[in-house]
Amino acid sequence: MNTTTTTTTTTTATTPAKTAGKTTAATDVPPAGEFTSAWIAYAFFALGVFMWWPYLLGLIICYSKRNAPRAGFVASHHRWLIRTFWWSLAGFFVGIGVVLSGTWPIVSEVARGAMHGHTTAEVKIDLNWSSIFTTASAAMLGVLVIFMSWLWTIYRIVRGGVQLADARAVP
What we know:
Layout: E1 18-19, E2 22-23, H1 32-48, H2 52-65, H3 74-102, H4 104-115, H5 129-165
Antiparallel strand pairs: 1-2
């Protein structure tokens, strides 16, 4: 009695996205609702470049959707917009701070005149040219900082929108 046994072996290739029957969140295709919420947030941020209230609505959407369980790579877009908001706000306040600090020589001179009990018709303001040039220079520098922050915000919104249209995550 001679018996022969044949064994058939099959192998299956596993992709990095599927290991042990699970998929990673970065490679999952998010539901359409996640894409829609991201596009709405981008639209609000784009409007927020010109008005402040849509910017805040977009921020609320991003904070509510950033940790959604099935968001996949769209969650990176919500984090991107949140960081865009806070850094652009910081840039705006730095610019305003530079403008206000530059106007201090003139404001202090007016306050000093008012504190001496003079009426508005009698206030004498002694300004020298260095105060005027300091104020003008600081105002120009502050406005430049605000403008650069505004351009950076537009860049971030456009770059993120392009990445979302290509269904890619942002850094």
